[in-house]
Structure prediction request, 396 residues.
Amino acid sequence: MKKNGTLNIENSCLVCQCHTLHLVSKGTEWLPAVSSDNKPWNAKIPIYVCKTCGHIQKAINQQWQEDAAAIYAEYDLYKLREGAEHVVVESENQVSRSGLILDHVEHEITLPSQGKLLDFGCGNGSVFRTFGPRHPAWSLIGFDANARYREEVIRLPGVQAFFCGKLDQLEPSFDLMTAYYVMEHVIRPVDVLEHLHHILNASGILCLVVPNVWENAFDLMVADHCSHFFPASLSSLLTRCGYDVFRIATHWVQRSIVVLCRKRRPNQQPLSHIIPDIETIRQRVERRLKWLEELALQALQLSDSQTFGILGTATAGSWLAGVVGDNVNFFVDEDPGCIGKTHLGRPIIAPSEVSDDAVVYLSLPPQLATDIRTRLVSKFPGKRFIVPAIFSMEGF
Prediction:
């Protein structure tokens, strides 16, 4: 049912539809949000855990839907890289993220010489730019909620069609489907996954990628992410929708979950997924929110009396910039495609350009921040790189 043009599912779990949402963000709701295209977003968004199935989500009320619509109306995909997708800077060769995922997929399965690929949530076609040259005989089909990049996508080699709007435009059958960083935006994930199941070949593969909330607490702060997944919850959702999950990886892409699945065969028993009890999930989410609050307070204190920079211009760094506000003087990035540009009105510099009197805050998950700091300090002695203090990390 719709109210004022928005879906009225405010009190429902997005997965099991039960009205058993439990607020877990009480006390940390002062923290601002960030959009998924890396812009500070001045909204206080409560976080819930479903007491029936353990799903972690936002409440899909009128305010959330209006915020999401406003974000998507001015969405600027990969702005700093002029439309080019993220590179994996931890990789020695700095490959694109789509390329890295495809490398792993091709290691797991053998793709036929010809086939039909659907990229669900194709954006400006980053998956096609990687997949097409490797598999030139494949037919590539794009689907996106926004038609902004239609002409750009349709011109890519191998792309046969671009669809926008209703899912029922997509008809069987596809040999491979990709959905990279899409399901966290979808307010009816069961309906979407069941339709994708319907149009997938009997032997076809679905490759799904989402942020891993256990490894990336900053995902909770993304205003337009309505769902927050961990490995067991994503596997359980896919099983609910008729899939057989045969590979789930949390190390292929940092802070992300990559799943390979196929249609479950008739009479095939679904795998059972060990989901932590609801109280454990609640405690884990609350610890992450508390850690984010303590990180924000630490950064506010550090930035109050000295030149202050933030490492990274993606979600975490952009969120912290929204917290600190005018006290951010610059950003630091190791990506050559970003250095020399500006982000949120501040210059982006290389680590070597940081002055000795400045501090650079590594707004990253604890272990990753520590590893990067160790590397940067050894490479640039005398420069001050600060990692988040480990306050309430026991049992994180």
